[in-house]
Amino acid sequence: MCEIEEDTIAVGMYVIIKKLNFKKIYKVTANGSLMLGKDLVEMSAIIGKRFWSTFEMIPTKEGKRAYSLKEVLEAESLNDLLNELPSGSDNRTIIDDGTSQKLSKEEILQLQESGKTGKEIVGSLIENNKSFLDRTEYSQEKYLKKKEQKYLRYLTVCRPNISSLHDVYFKLDLNKIGGLRMDSLAQLLSYSDVQSDGLHILYDSGSQGLPAAAMLNRIGSNTNGHLINLHPGNVPQAMLVNAMNFPKEQTDRLVNVNIYSFLRLYYQGENAVWNNISNKDHSNWINKVKESKRKKEEEDLIEKPQTEEISSNVVINESEKVLNDEVNEEQKTDSGLKRKFDGGNESSDSTPAKKPRWLLDTQRAVELVQGSKARGLTIVCKEHPLNIVTALLPFLGASRPFVIYHAYREPLQEVYVALKQTQNVINLRLFSNFLRSYQILPDRTHPDILTNDTGGYLLTGYLVEQ
């Protein structure tokens, strides 16, 4: 019964919508819709269906590019059309002057509006194309693929996994995942020794949660492993972690923590964390009050010019008095909140304030590193990693690996030189990968022309006792 429920698409789940070679991530909602290029597709029909189901896009009357979905057993294919038609030996006699197609644009639109299937429309295009039979088999295949993308409207709803999610983002914008290619991600997991048990520490400064999702996927749900995901901002990037549809037992293994709060709480204690946040908020508030008062004074002076200097001094002095009163009142409020936060009682009726969620997560992370050293340390960053490595290496256990990823070589070279001068790091290795995919087809095997030539750089090593 559980397996059936897991294979069923439900509201709140993330799915991957695949249309031929195009993929897009979509979160299922009750009455949601999805934009595929210029097409608006109503997605409510996929709820309750099984993953890997295929749907046909049916035009609706609401708009020219609006579609609803209808489940089908399989999608149409145009490959059988090639077997039925002859082909030419070469394309030298073909002149691309735009007159090969006899059907006009209006006639093609009429075919679409008449309800004909995509296969029937493409068949009509082939019949009215003067040069199609003279093309080579390879040229005919390219022509059909181009028409297939335009006229065949079939979607497949796929279950997300690390490979497919990476593929979506890498093709969309590889900079959003830090240029982290799939082979580099695989080596990142291998060199960091991610397993189902033990404590693992990850620092990620902007990869949409891809390394965290991959590591959490390896750790699993019914294990004793934990992953501390350190990040520099207030909120972690967890898009791809959420897109994996992990069960609650598995997401409980992940602890998202701000790295600065983590280090401050570990070395200085809880009061230092609260004082830092309180002072920062208080300073920001004072600056905002001063700025608003200054703007108000300027507006008042512009709207009502003062003829006497004494009058302007009265306005300024009065404003300063109001500002000081508000600042003193805010200081009293802050001191009262601090006493509540620390467990102190301002009066007999006051009770300790509830700790925020981020502080509870930070305390949990500190307890984990105090209980045991980390089994592996992984750093995926866009900034210079030297200070991050120096701060996090003390939390790594002896004889345990660490791996650092960066899109550029020069920052890792500097880290390599700095770590070489220490006595507790061995087996340092800085390297890059060159991965190139090949198109393997009959009589035309060649490398892909449009490919990314670099997947970043990796620095690996082991921490030992001095």
TrEMBL record:
Record gene name: LOC108622597
Family assignment from sequence similarity: Belongs to the TRM6/GCD10 family.
Main subcellular localisation: nucleus
Biased composition (Basic and acidic residues): 321-343
This protein's GO CC annotations: nucleus; tRNA (m1A) methyltransferase complex
InterPro entries, per the entry: TRM6
PANTHER family in UniProt: TRANSLATION INITIATION FACTOR EIF3-RELATED, TRNA (ADENINE(58)-N(1))-METHYLTRANSFERASE NON-CATALYTIC SUBUNIT TRM6
Alphabetic keyword roster: Nucleus, tRNA processing
Protein name in the entry: tRNA (adenine(58)-N(1))-methyltransferase non-catalytic subunit TRM6
Pfam families, sorted: Gcd10p
Cellular localization per UniProt: Nucleus
Region described as Disordered: spans on this chain: 321-356
GO annotation terms (biological process): tRNA methylation
Species the sequence originates in: Ceratina calcarata
